[in-house]
Amino acid sequence: MDDHTPTRRKILYVANLEFAGTSVHRVEAMKRLGQEVVTFTPAASLPQSRILAKLRYYYPVGPLVSGVNRDLLKMVHRERPDVVWFDKPLFFTPETIQEIKSTGATTVCYNQDNPFGPRNDGCWMQFLRAYRYFDLNCLFRKADVIRYQGWNLPYIELQFSHDPQQNFPPPAEWTDAQRHREVSFTGSPFDDRAEFLMTLAEKHRLPVLITGPRWERGLNQQQIEKYVTGGLLTSDAYRENIWRSKINLAFVTHSNEDDVAHKAFEITACGSFLLAERTAAHLAAFKEDEEAVFFSTVEECADKARYYLDHASERASIASRGRERAITSGYDNDTQLKRVLLKLDGIETRSAI
Description:
CATH superfamily of the largest domain: Glycogen Phosphorylase B
Largest sheet: 6 strands, parallel
Number of domains: 2
Shape: globular
Order of helices and strands: EHEHHEHEHEHEEHEHEHEHEHEHHH
Number of helices: 14
CATH architecture of the largest domain: 3-Layer(aba) Sandwich
Helix content: 40-55%
Strand content: 15-25%
Radius of gyration: 21 Å
């Protein structure tokens, strides 16, 4: 971990901070790192009718996004930031990026999602016009690192990270009896997760509970009523759902070319037991069977879930060591964002020579 202190800057952070995501946590981390942060919320400058929002999702061009580009540029000229930091920029044109750079500001693209993968979410039209213009790109997947190297574009490779103000262990008096969720998954039905979870529940007879949005896409109504306990969770509710789970499952989203599950770092930071899909990146992040437990097949997952449900003390020890690893290895927002700020120090120093 680098002990240098990054230069204090004025950062204009561009993100939909009212959305139930993690960008607000990164804004707070920037402030903890000594940065002056002002924010711009694109949604405030976008027409909010349902029809226009759906059209803009697939075709973020012309009048559908001209207002948000104009408003951002007004704020840039008024605030004169040192850095304009874009968190998943979907609506900003190459012309806007170039005008921002002409003011002397450095532009950063921080995008945890994948515009280039096979999932084809459909929202990336404007991003694919603009991504080559950023001064620094924050990347989270080996597949993207290879792409940006081939394109000779500036990047830094980061770790998915947890927020220390949101992801922390339960109170000391917490007991296993308060964990009423046995085998728990919190998230969305990407890839084959619905089939996998129903195999655990219905073939292997494990006490599975699911929380998250859009499960009507993978489960029938009877399964939803039996296994799904709620929709999207954020902040305190998300953390407490992890606390109340004896076994927290985590899957890698292959359709997004992910190497790890983002929630693996949140679960372990919460001092909770992680049972995750076995990947090279997960194995590099946590010692298997010491700091987390992994599976490659549904049968292996079922066997391990059954074993650790019956061995609470072993489960608690692994959870404790997983928490220690998540903290000491820098799998947190502050550490990862500090790396970006120090990278910017180097970019700006070279530019001044």
